């Protein structure tokens, strides 16, 4: 359903499913406490974790935990690649809802998208549970028309261009002393 920004924000804060552009593929999102709605809507297996997306890195640090040295390493990566198409999988703090990653609640994927619409929404809602808009196992939907047809219950922002690069974010997992690339996407990260 195509709505104004104000209606979208109010619905998001109330725990409804929304969609917004991210610069890569459109996001399906809700507040973390309602993350199970994403699994139901997508017919998604619980072994596939969600990403916590925010308007800026500072909004995400409370959801992860590490040593001072690890935070310094993570901050260097963030300074180089965010906002952008890089999802970092880091050790989760106890602040994160287990439904975000039911099979491994010790980690959480975090990202700050390089898209002004997404950043505007996330600045108002706070960090949101996100993933691509599609039925599980199907290609990510790219346009507002596709999203509205397949997910009529999901609120979308009217007069907004949803199509991004069409390539998902790169996913890099922190392994305690180095990065492991779980999915190669837009960004080519150098793993030392």
Description:
With 192 residues, this protein is an alpha/beta fold. 24% of the residues lie in helices and 21% in strands. The protein is globular, with a radius of gyration of 16 Å. The model has no long low-confidence stretch (mean pLDDT 93).
Q: Helicity, in percent? A: 10-25%
**Per the principal axes of the C-alpha atoms, what is the gross shape?**
globular
The major β-sheet equals: 8 strands, mixed
Structural class: alpha/beta
Count of individual beta strands: 10
Strands of the widest sheet, in order across it, are 2-3-7-4-6-5-9-10
Cα gyration radius (Å) = 16 Å
* Mean pLDDT value: 93
How would you spell out the order of helices and strands? EHEEHEHEEHEHEEE
Poorly predicted runs of 5 or more residues: none
DSSP strand content: 15-25%
Report the oligomer: single chain
Number of helices: 5
Distance between the first and last residues' Cα: 45 Å
Question: Key terms for this structure?
Answer:
192 residues, alpha/beta, 8-stranded mixed sheet, two-stranded parallel sheet, 5 helices, 10 strands
Element layout with pairings:
Elements (H helix, E strand, L loop, with lengths): L1 E2 L1 H9 L4 E3 L6 E4 L5 H7 L8 E3 L14 H14 L4 E6 L15 E5 L4 H10 L2 E5 L11 H7 L5 E2 L12 E5 L4 E5 L9
In a nutshell, what does this entry contain?
With 192 residues, the chain is α/β, with parallel strands linked by helices. It is built from 5 helices and 10 strands; from the N terminus they run βαββαβαββαβαβββ.
């Amino acid at each position: 359903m195509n709505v104004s920004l104000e209606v979208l924000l109010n619905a998001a804060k109330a725990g409804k499913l929304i969609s917004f552009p991210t610069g890569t593929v459109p996001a399906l999102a809700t507040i973390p406490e309602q993350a199970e709605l994403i699994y139901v809507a997508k017919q998604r297996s619980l072994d596939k974790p969600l990403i916590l997306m925010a308007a800026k890195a500072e909004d995400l640090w409370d959801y992860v935990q590490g040593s001072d040295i690890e935070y310094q390493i993570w901050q260097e990566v963030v300074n180089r690649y965010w906002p952008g198409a890089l999802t970092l999988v880091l050790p989760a703090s106890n602040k994160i809802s287990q439904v975000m990653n039911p099979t491994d609640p010790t980690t959480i994927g975090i990202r700050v998208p390089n898209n002004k619409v997404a950043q505007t929404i996330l600045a108002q809602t706070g960090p949101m549970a996100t993933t691509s808009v599609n039925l599980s196992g199907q290609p990510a939907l790219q346009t507002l028309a596709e999203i509205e047809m397949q997910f009529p219950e999901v609120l979308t922002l009217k007069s907004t261009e949803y199509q991004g690069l069409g390539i998902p974010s790169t996913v890099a997992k922190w392994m305690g002393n180095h990065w492991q690339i779980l999915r190669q996407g837009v960004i080519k990260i150098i793993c030392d």
